[in-house]
Amino acid sequence: MTVKTPIYLDYSATTPIDPRVAEKMIPYLTEHFGNPASRSHVFGWAAEKAVETAREEVAKLVNADPREIIWTSGATESNNLAIKGAANFYSGKGKHIITVMTEHKAVIDPVRELERLGFEATFLQPEPNGLVDVEKFRAAIRPDTVLASVMLVNNEIGVIQDIESIGNICRENGVIFHVDAAQATGKVAIDLEKLPVDLMSFSAHKTYGPKGIGALYVRRKPRVRLEAQMHGGGHERGLRSGTLATHQIVGMGEAFRIAREEMDFEIARIRRLRDKLLTGLQEIEEVYVNGDLKQRVPHNLNISFNYVEGESLIMAVKDIAVSSGSACTSASLEPSYVLRALGRSDELAHSSIRFSIGRFTTEEEIDYTVSLMKSKIGKLRELSPLWEMYQEGIDLSTVEWAAH
Amino acid sequence: MISNDVYFDHNATTALDKSVLEAMLPYMEQQHGNPTSRHSFGRQARKAVEQAREQVAAAVNAHPTQVIFTSGGTEANNLAIIGISSSYGISQIITSAIEHPCVTRPALAMKHRGWKLSMLPVDSSGVVETHALEALLETETSVVSVMLANNETGALQPVAELAEIARRFRTILHTDAVQALGKVKVDFAELNVQAMTLSSHKVNGPQGAGALILDKRIDIQPVIHGGGQEKGLRSGTENVAAIVGFGYACTLLDSRVMGYDKDVRLMQQRLEQGLRQLGAVIFSAGAERLPNTTFFSFKEIDGETLVMALDRKGFAVASGSACSSDSSEPSSVLLAMGVEYDLAKGAVRVSLGLQNHMEQVDDFLASLELELNRLRQLTAIAV
Q1: A328, A300, A325: which is closest to A311 by C-alpha?
Q2: What is the strand order of the sheet B293-297 is part of?
Q3: How far apart are CA B234 and CA B71, in angstroms?
Q4: What ipTM, to 2 d.p.?
Q5: DSSP assignment letter at B184
Q6: Looking at CA atoms only, how far is residue B294 from chain A in angstroms?
C-alpha cells in the first residue's frame, strides 16, 4: 500500500479547487479581464455575463432566485453583512438576538460586536449531541427578538441543525432568521423555496471553489432588508460595494454546479469512507465521537481519544493533516469552545481530532489513517501514567492531585 | 473577438500580467491550505501570504507588519474610514469633494451615525485646496481622507502637504492610493501619512485583493468580525491565490512606473495634442496628472453616445469611473471643479496602459474624428 503523505483530511478547513473549476477560472484571469461594472465596452460586458451565469448556478444549488444572491468576499463577510445588516435595519423593532454557543466565530463575533453597541444576545447551549433543542429555542424568543442565527452544519462536529423547525418558530414570531451554510453546500440538500430561512451565507472554498468569494442569500418574498456594511460604488444593488472578482465568482459558480450534479453520488461515497474510518477507530479503547452521529454530514468525524495529551497527539500524527478544533481557532491552545459547549471535559476536548473527508480522499488513505491512529495512540498511551492508572482500575476523578 | 479591441480603460481594471498568473497558479492548482491551519498545508499557505506581505510592503516603502490584506480597495477604504472614526468616537471626518464613492459613502454612513462630515473643496483644475484644511481641523477630527490621484481626471493631490498639516493637529491622514500605485512612485514613509489604501487589480494583479497600509500606533476597529485573521483587523480566510498574485504584481511596480513615465506619457501627450486639435476640453489640464489618464469632453456631444460609438469601433473607453458608470448623472468630480453641467455630461475618460502603443492612439484619434463628424451632422439635422 503506497500512500502519499501527508494525507489531507481537513476538508472542513478548506478544500482544494476542483481542477474543472480552475480551468473555468483561468480565462477570466487572462483574456476576459474586464471590470463587470464597466458598462461602456465589451470587456465589461463579457465579465458581467460571466458573473450573472455564476449567480444562476449558485441560486440553482439552493433553489433560490438569482436576484436573491449577493456576492461577498466569503462566508465571514456574508455572516457579518447578514447579522449586522439585519440587526441594524430592524433595530427599531427590538434589540434582542438569539444564536447558539457552537456557531462559528464569524457569527459569534459580529453578535458580540452588536452587544457592544447596545443589543442583547442569547447564546443557546446545544444538547450534549450538539443539536439545538427546538423547544428551548422557542422559549428563548422575547417580544423584542429581531434576529436569530443558527448554522446548518457545524464546522467542528458536522451536526445538522433542524433549520426547518427553528425557521418556522422564527416565522411565527416575526423574527428574521439567518443560517450560516458555509459547511453545508454540497453536503446536504438545501431548498430555499421550502425552507423558512431569510438569510443564508455561503462560501466557495469549502465546496471546491476558490478562496476569497462567498455569497449571501437575501429573501425577496417576503422581502428582507439589510443595512449595507461595505459602502462605495453601489455594486450588488448597493448591498455590497467593491469591484467583483470575476474569476473567483466564475469559480464559485462552477464549484456549485458540480456540487449540484455530483452531490448524491459523492455523499454516498464519502459515507462509505467515513463508516470505514469510524469502524476502524472504534477498535481503539476509550474513544468518544463528538456530536450526534445520525443527524450529521458524513464528511465529518470528530473523535476524542481519552488518556492522550492533545498537543502530543497532533505532533504524533503529522502524516495526516487534520485539525483540532476549527482552523480559525486552532492557533490558540484553548480547548475547542464547541466541544466545551457540549459539556465535554477540557481533557477530552483537548484530545479531539476532526477528520474531514472530501472529494479526493481515497480508501487507501482511510486505511492508512486507521492504522496510523491505532499505532500512535497505543504508543502515546504507553507513556501515559493516566492510562496506566485507568488500566489499574483507578477512578481518576477521585484522585487528589498534590500541588507543586 | 475581444482581443482585437483596444483597451483604453486601465483605470477601471487591468489585465493580469502573465508572470503574475504563473505565481498564482500553484495556489489554485496544488497548494490549497488554509493559512490558519497548523499542518504543513496550512503552513505553506501562511508562508505564501507572508511573502506577499513583504512584497507589498517593499513596493511602497512600508514595513510588512503595516500591511493588512483586504478583499480590495473598497474594503480597505471602508476599514480606514469606519474603523478609525468609530474607534475614535463621535468627531469630524474630513474628506475631499472628489473622492471615490468607496471613501465618501462610508463617510456618509458615519454621518448617519452622528459623525460630522466636512469636505475639502478643489480648485478648477481638480486639485484639493490645502489651505482649507487648517480651519476645518479646529473642530475635533478623527480622520482626514484625501486620495493620492483622482481616478477620473488623474490629477495628483497634495497629500504630503495635507499630511503635514494634519500632523500638526495630531490628526490621522488616510490616502486612497489605488489609482496612483504603479503609475507614479508611491512611498508610504515619504508621504508621511498614517494609512493608505492599495488595490491589486489596478496594477496587473488579480481582482479580489487589496491592502490597507497602517501605522501600527493607530487605534482602529475591524469592520469584518470573526476568526481574527490579519491581527483581528480583517477576519475571514485569506484569499491566498489573489494575495500571492497581488504580492507578485507589486514586485513589478518599479519597472511599471518607469514605463508609465516614459512610454505611456508620450502616448498621453500625442493623444491630448490630437484631442485639442479636434476641439476637446481636457479636464485638469493645468494640474500635475497621472501619465495615463485623460478626461475630456466635446461641447454639444453626449459622452455616453460617444463612448458607445467608440465601442463599436473597437475602443474600450469610459464615461467617468466604472463604479458609477451605471448612472447617467454627470461626474461629481467635474461638478466639484465647477465644470458646467452639459460639458460634464459629455465627459469621456481614456486611461492608457503599458499594453497600448502609439498606433492605437493614432487609430483612436482617426476614428474619433469620423465619429465626431457623424454625430455633429446628426445633431445639425436634429436641430
Answers
A1: A325
A2: B281-282, B293-297, B348-351
A3: 9
A4: 0.91
A5: B
A6: 17
